Amino acid sequence: MGELILVPTPLQDDTPLEPVALERLKESCLEETTLLLVEEHKIARRRWLSWGLPREAIEKFILVNEHTQEKIKSDLIKEIRKGKKAFLMSDTGLPAFCDPGQTLVELAHRSGIKVSSTPFPNSIALAVALSGFPHGQFSFSGFIPVKEPDRREWMKSQLKKSEMLIWMETPYRLQKLMEELVEMNLSREIFLGLDLGGPDETNFRGSAGEFLKRFPGPGKREFVLLIGPSKT
Q1: pLDDT of 104-156, one tens digit each?
Q2: What is the Cα 205 distance to its own chain's centre?
Q3: How far is residue 162's CA from residue 111's CA, in Å, rounded to a whole number?
Q4: DSSP letter at 222?
Q5: Would residue 34 count as lying in a domain?
Q6: pLDDT at 209 over 80
């Protein structure tokens, strides 16, 4: 099984690419098992060369945008499942955040493919992009109240909203929060971005019950919780 890797790019043409992203692309871009997914060829080519990346790799560019992705995303997923590593870049900014790449990330999760990212400084936006959840509208709710009954009432009130929800909580309440969602019979999918940007980064998408089975006693970990949009 391969991997889908989001590569955030600078907003301005004269800004260097983030060093870790640059190094990973240099190491991988000419390998036969690497897919380079870009939004627009002309823009990607100009920026690629400005970052000093190999000119010959430009021939490998595959356009993934609102005009092409419906035709090619299934084939891309097949190639990644065979073991290929796919780097996804939008023209500027964070791919898959309010961006056509969202549907490819969604399909990757559905296909059991690991989705990760090169460094990005905002954990909230990064979690949204990595989740693959539709997010034309979303609600950032901040930190969950600590004390009962305010805590449970707050969660019930939030879950009445149909859009994607973003919740924050302290690291040592991760297991408690997952157990609470199971007790509330939450039917919506969740995404947990754990220790984003660190060596122990883990991205999970599924149900709260599935998370507890996969990570019994998850311990103290920094995390962002996303609750997918309601299907009703």
Answers
A1: 999 999 999 999 999 999 999 999 999 999 998 999 999 999 999 999 999 99
A2: 10
A3: 25
A4: -
A5: yes
A6: yes
Distance CA 132, CA 104 (A): 8
Beta bridge partners of 193: 203, 224
Please state, in angstroms and rounded to a whole number, the distance separating the CA atoms of residues 36 and 24: 12
Write the CB contacts of 6 (distance below 8 Å, at least 6 apart in sequence). 88, 94, 95, 96, 101, 105, 115, 116, 117, 118, 120, 129, 130
For residue 232, being part of any structural domain is answered with no
Is the model's pTM score more than 0.90?
yes
Residues 11 and 86 reside in one and the same domain? yes
Q: Encoding tokens for residue 124?
A: 């909230």
Name the residue with tokens 């805590």.
151
How many domains is the chain built from? 2
pLDDT tens column, 23-63: 999 999 999 999 999 999 999 999 999 999 999 999 999 99
Q: What is the token pair recorded at 215?
A: 């990570």
Q: Both tokens of residue 108?
A: 């990757």
Question: What stretch of H or E contains 3?
Answer: strand 3-6
